[in-house]
Amino acid sequence: MKIVMIGAGYVGLVSGACLADFGHDVICVDKDAGKIADLEANRMPIYEPGLAQLVKSNVETGRLSFSLDLPAAVADADAIFIAVGTPSRRGDGHADLSYVFAATREIGAALTGPTVVVTKSTVPVGTGDQVERILRDVAPDIEAAVVSNPEFLREGAAIGDFKRPDRIVIGTTDERARAVMRAIYRPLYLNEAPLLFTARRTAELIKYAANAFLATKITFINEIADLCEQVDADVKDVARGIGLDNRIGPKFLHAGPGFGGSCFPKDTLALLKTAEDHESPMRIVEAVVQVNEQRKRAMGRKVIQAAGGDVRGKRIGVLGLTFKPNTDDMRDAPALAIVQTLLDGGAEVRAFDPEGMEAARPMLPDVTLVGDPYAAAEGADALVIVTEWDLFRALDLKRVARLMALPILVDLRNIYPPEEALAAGFSYTSVGRSAVSGDFAAVQPKMAEDAATG
Ligand code: UDX
Predict the structure, then answer these.
(1) Statement to judge: residues 157 and 230 lie in one domain
(2) Fewest beta carbons less than 10 Å away: which of 108, 305, 370, 429?
(3) So where's the catalytic machinery, residue-wise (predicted)?
């Protein structure tokens, strides 16, 4: 199979590298000459575990290559995947499809024989019909079937998700296109991953429905967490207690500072727009968007409260800036709103993130970025864990406490058992569990002395 991937961004690059690894010939095309040059030198434009190695080995075998020349690449391709960005359109929240349509026009102009055009980008219901119309206009004599094949890749786990998917959704009623898609994913269904064939519009909606449902699940447990704090219950146990019910399932029930990232915020908004356009209200998703938006700032206020109600002139350490671990992605990261709330309150913020510092720097110009977690703790009046990087799971808490001006730990991802924080002398605030206060003087002798001498 000769496959072309239009867009060497997150989705296109991971999908292209994985399809090459299945034995197909894949060309990843992008307009960004710098990106193509970097990829040819095995420099990845994003941080994704395992990606550099996967790209390198497939480039070496000759199955994977990169190009700026779209017309040459697509001319005799068996399948052309469109994996360009569909950001939220400024102002109205609609998905911006200009990149998808521009790519479609270029593809149409370059086709020389029958092919299958696959939309991998997350696109609103009905986009496939528009893509088909454009192709018919630009290349009326070419037989080009249009398929919707949404991706369900999680950043940080994308290669595993591609190679061991829960399902592969293929939206087309065209028999030839179905056969091509079956051949492309053959290694996966041999592995028993279900191939779900649907109508094209249905496949497009499945993607949005899946993301909106997951966003709802997270938002639901976040609100249960707030209630837990009021009634002295433990949200981790509540999540376990409901998650053991097979009908609910244990995943996506981790309470935290609210969802962020490149998908959930944008896709929930786009789904609402589609619902509005078709006068079919989605009140639950509306509430999810609103509750999640308010939550991020509320988490900033939670930190201020834990730090005594006022952070003016205080130093706050922040651990984790990316929207989740194992990525360098800062898009819609809860850390942005949390840090802004702290800065607005007059705090000095010092932050550390294992992979996200470069992306964070221009977005958080008023934050001092430091080289490791302990530097973030130094002299701080409170320390906040915003992202659950593994690196933060096994900190020497006593050392952290000794470094701080005041031993206040706010764990917005519930990664520490309260007893452990207590044993290190912390006042410990988490999400959906009662706050606890340890004996700081016991671990910081100097403080005990200061207290004794008044
Ligand atoms: C998501 C979907 O999982 C994926 O299928 C889709 O293709 C793209 O969007 P991603 O955005 O990479 O993937 O990350 P995910 O792991 O789903 O997390 C999204 C957000 O929800 C993060 O901010 C994460 O911290 C948050 N989250 C997730 C929680 O707060 N609690 C949870 O239990 C799970």
Answers:
(1) no
(2) 305
(3) 263
CA of 433 to the centre of ligand 1 (A): 22
Atom of ligand 1 nearest to the CA of 262: 11
- Atom 22 (ligand 1): residue with closest C-alpha? 259
Domain boundary among 180, 197, 214: 197
Do residues 278 and 339 both lie within one domain? Answer: yes
Per residue, the 3-state secondary structure of 307-369, as one string, reads: CCCCCCCCEEEEECCCCCCCCCCCCCCHHHHHHHHHHHCCCEEEEECCCCHHHHHHHCCCCEE
Distances (CA, A) of 311 to 39, 342, 344, 374: 45, 7, 9, 20
Question: Whose alpha carbon is nearest atom 15 of ligand 1?
Answer: 154
d(CA 17, CA 24): 10
Q: For 246-298, how does the pLDDT look when each residue is reduced to its tens digit (9 = 90+)?
A: 999 999 999 999 999 999 999 999 999 999 999 999 999 999 999 999 999 99
Does any ligand 1 atom lie closer than 6 A to the CB of residue 167?
A: no
62: containing domain: 1-197
**Cβ(236) – ligand 1 distance below 6 Å:** no
The string of pLDDT tens digits covering residues 342-398 is 999 999 999 999 999 999 999 999 999 999 999 999 999 999 999 999 999 999 999
The reply to whether ligand 1 has any atom less than 6 angstroms from the CB of 323 is yes
Q: Does ligand 1 lie within 6 Å of residue 11's CB atom?
A: no
Among candidate residues 134, 164, 197, the one where a domain is terminated:
197
Number of domains present in the structure of the chain: 2
Catalytic residues: 263
